[in-house]
Write a structure and sequence with these properties.
This protein is α+β, with helices and mostly antiparallel strands and 235 residues long. It is built from eight helices and five strands.
Length: 235
C-alpha cells in the first residue's frame, strides 16, 4: 500500500536531487512516485514526454496510467497531450460523462479511471510533457487539487530540467574527452609511420586511413594498435 506524504515534504525532496547521483530515468520515476503519494486523490501517476520523435510515457506508477497514456498516443488526442501542447492544466472530473477527445474519456472510465488531471511540464525548449494524475472515482480531486498539482509540477519541471541538462553536459564532456584521446593516439601513430616510412604527415595519415579501410577497423583502433606495438617490450 502506498502511504501518503505531506506535499511540502515532496517539494523539498524535488529540491534535493543530487544530479551527479541521479539518472534522468531515476528522476522521472521519483517524480511520479512523489506525485502519487503527495497529491490527494492520485491513484496512479504517469509522466508524458514529448520530443521530436513523438510522445511517450517516461515514468508511471501502475499499468492503468500507462495503458491510458498509450491510448492517447495512438489516437493523437487526450488530456495529457493537450496539457503538454498548451502548457496548461486539463481537468476531467468525470470520465464517464466527458465527451472530449473522441471517446477517450469514456474508455478511461471503462478501464477504471473515474477522473483525470493533467498538468503541462515545460521542461526544455525541445522537451515538453505532462504530469498525468489518474483518480479511481469521479470527482477524486478537490477544488484546490489543480493548484497543488501545478505547484508540484513547477518544482518537478525544474528538477527534471536540471537533471537533463546535467547529464547532457556530462555526456558531451565524455564525447569530447574521447575525441581528444582519439586525436592524441592518431597523432602518435602518425609520428611512428613518419619515422618508419620517412614520409610526410599527410602521407602518414593517408596510410593509416588505408589500413583502417583494408582491415575494416576504426582509425582510432588502428592507431592504438600501432602505438601499443611500438611500446610493447621486445621478447
Amino acid at each position: 500500500m502506498t502511504h501518503p506524504i505531506d506535499p511540502l515534504f515532496a517539494f523539498a525532496e524535488l529540491g534535493r536531487f543530487k544530479l551527479s547521483e541521479t539518472s534522468l530515468d531515476a528522476a522521472l520515476d521519483r517524480v511520479a512516485t512523489l506525485a502519487q503519494r503527495a497529491l490527494p486523490g492520485a491513484a496512479e501517476v504517469s509522466i508524458t514526454l514529448v520530443r521530436d520523435q513523438g510522445p511517450y510515457t517516461a515514468a508511471f506508477t501502475g499499468e492503468l496510467a500507462l495503458i491510458l497514456d498509450e491510448r492517447q498516443y495512438e489516437h493523437h488526442r487526450g488530456p495529457c497531450l493537450q496539457a503538454a501542447a498548451e502548457k496548461s492544466t486539463i481537468s476531467v472530473p468525470d470520465t464517464a460523462t466527458d465527451g472530449r477527445w473522441a471517446g477517450w474519456a469514456r474508455r478511461a472510465a471503462e478501464a477504471g479511471a473515474g477522473s483525470v488531471l493533467s498538468v503541462g511540464l515545460p521542461i526544455l525548449d525541445d522537451v515538453s510533457g505532462a504530469l498525468n494524475i489518474y483518480g479511481r472515482k469521479p470527482g477524486a480531486f478537490a477544488d484546490d487539487a489543480g493548484v497543488l498539482a501545478e505547484t508540484f509540477a513547477g518544482y518537478a519541471a525544474i528538477a527534471l530540467a536540471n537533471t537533463h541538462l546535467y547529464h547532457t553536459a556530462a555526456e558531451l564532456a565524455r564525447h569530447l574527452q574521447a575525441a581528444m584521446d582519439s586525436r592524441a593516439v592518431i597523432e602518435q601513430a602518425k609520428g611512428i609511420v613518419i619515422a618508419e616510412r620517412r614520409c610526410t604527415p599527410d602521407e602518414a595519415f593517408d596510410f593509416l586511413i588505408k589500413v583502417s579501410q583494408d582491415t575494416n577497423r576504426k582509425l582510432r583502433d588502428v592507431a592504438a594498435a600501432l602505438v601499443a606495438g611500438v611500446r610493447a617490450p621486445s621478447s
